Amino acid sequence: MNRKRFLTYAFLAKYYFGHHLGRLLPSRRKPGGGLDKFLENYRADRIQALTPEERAALPDMQSCVSCGLCTSSCVLTAPPGNLTETPPIDPRAVAVSYSRAIPEFWSLRGVVERCKGCGLCEEVCPTDTPLLRMVRFIDDKSRESAPA
Amino acid sequence: MKVRSDIVVIGGGLAGITAAMRAASLGREVTVIRKAYGATAVGCGAFDVLGTHGGDLLHSAFDLRKGAQYAPPHDLFRLITRRPAHPYALFVEQDEGSEKAVWKSFRPRFDVAASFILDRLAKAGYELEGSAEAITPHPTAMGTLRWTNFAPVSIHRGNVNGWRKGGVVFVGIDGVDTFDTAFASRSLSALLAEQGSADAGSFDARTVTLPWGRKQGGMTPAEVARELDDPERRESFVAAVESELAGQDADHLVMAPVLGIDSHAETLHLLEKRTGARVCEPIIPAPHAIHGLRLQKALDRALESAGVRLVQAHVAGFDAAGSVIRMLRGEGDDGPFEAEARRFVLATGRFFGGGLVSQNGMRETVFNLPIYHGGRPVRERPPFALLRERYWSRQPAFEAGLRAGRDLRPVDGTGRVAYANLHAAGSILGGFDLAADGTGQGVDALTGYEAGSLAAKDVQA
């Protein structure tokens, strides 16, 4: 083993054991230290933590193929008057929103706030997209993430 | 909830509803179980029986100059020669050997099935025109031509072979971006000129603004169509079209496909009366087609008047005694449900309808039946054997499905009938490619009708 390689392994070993031994000691976290600095860096991006249950539910929410059948059955898009509502209501916009980052969910607030939860959209959905669950999820997450 | 009937049909698209209505017409008590809408509800409106030359992707290769080059006996013969597992092959006498004899054995059986379902659709307010003997060209929203055998009236009126010389105006709606009229009009006029149909006349494009305002960020055809079901809105819309076309030489109007969901025929006739032009809607592709939704709603109405019970539920399992299915179990809107019957029809469609799923290989979702391609279960072959690298070549993955004999009973992995009281209908049956063959709705009607007849006969026996 040459000298360079030896030093490299020694360096890695020092941090490997140092890190794990350090974790056994009581927390020495200083306010304004590493984690806080880390979170502070991302605060502007409004990124928030998901619970394990929320994370487990994400794949179900990704089944929308944007066929539009929900839009044509939604009571909120039913005439008269729906076309001129602001912002426009469209369950499909909710269903395809998995492709957006959670910090962008606030743009759907106008839609999810008016959802009556009748479930007609889910009834016609060919791909079993859990639209009502998505509405609740978006409602939840967008409350926290809306820009000031 | 517990349901007991003679026959349970799983799947509520074109094939399943045809099967259910056929069995009901023979006096059986029938229940349809459906989890949601499927592929039928997003269809483009074409009703294909033999859409292409024996399974070649040739929709666009049909040429006005040479007529449609459509010869049903030849095309059917070529189709079942090239695709021996095509469901149509179960409905012909192949021993005869000649093209004419094959067609002669197929035609009467198809006509009975097609006229059964078309008649009931017409009574439910959804009229289709056309014939298995002919194929007609209809404008699409892109200004190309889509050839098909049957089409709903609003599309069939656009059959360009029947256009008389004069002005053709494409009329769009401000805010409905799926129909770019300027592009479509330019495209179709160039296409017709290239194919030697110079007497099509002049082409123009207009855009109508909805008198009651438009939605921010665009609308789907279905959204506007729901508005036009309202008589007052219809009236003001037609007036807006009329004033937009004032002074325009318009013999043919290709209207944005938004004329209504439940009462589009009224809008169409009112437009024709006011403008004096022949009005049609273009074929538009999924996912925002409205023709499929109209068809689905008409099927549902027809099912209701046939006295068939429709249950909205997911089938999650079943009980069988030996090779006889006793009962389906599942989850419905009002909690768990059980459905007992003496005969079952599986018409769950393929990937979009939910009959097949692709998870570590293909799987049939209700009875876990083996999926076949080329006479063998696909499980026995490596996954790459189901895909070909050339986009336009035949893709086994899209031809795979259940395998069944003339009694439409799906077989198990060893080639024997899987369940004595189970029939399959529609696109869950393999052997054909929905997109490439141009036979999708023909298969649904024919196998649906046959499965309904067989199940009803079995119950009697």
Description:
The complex is a heterodimer of chains A (148) and B (461). Chain A is mostly helical and 148 residues long. Chain A contains seven helices and no strands. Chain A has helices spanning 3-24, 34-43, 52-61, 91-95, 109-114, 120-124, 131-145. The radius of gyration of chain A is 23 Å and the shape is elongated. With 461 residues, chain B is an alpha/beta fold. Chain B has two domains: 2-121 and 293-460, 3-Layer(bba) Sandwich (FAD/NAD(P)-binding domain); 141-284, Rossmann fold (3-Layer(aba) Sandwich). Chain B is 30% helix and 20% strand. Chain B has an eight-stranded mixed β-sheet. In chain B, helix 1 (14-25) runs parallel beside helix 9, helix 1 (14-25) runs parallel beside helix 11 and helix 3 (99-123) packs across helix 11 (440-460). In chain B, 54% of the residues are buried. The interface between A and B is medium-sized, with 25 and 36 residues.
Topology:
The complex is a heterodimer of chains A (148) and B (461).
Chain A: H1 3-24, H2 34-43, H3 52-61, H4 91-95, H5 109-114, H6 120-124, H7 131-145
Chain B: E1 2-4, E2 7-10, H1 14-25, E3 30-34, H2 72-82, H3 99-123, E4 128-130, E5 136-139, E6 145-148, E7 150-152, H4 153-156, E8 168-173, H5 181-194, E9 203-208, H6 221-228, H7 231-244, E10 252-255, H8 264-275, E11 278-280, H9 291-305, E12 309-321, E13 324-332, E14 335-340, E15 343-346, E16 356-358, E17 362-364, E18 372-373, E19 376-377, E20 422-424, H10 434-437, H11 440-460
Parallel strand pairs in B: 1-14, 2-3, 2-15, 3-12, 8-9, 8-10, 10-11, 15-20
Antiparallel strand pairs in B: 4-7, 5-6, 12-13, 13-14, 16-17, 18-19
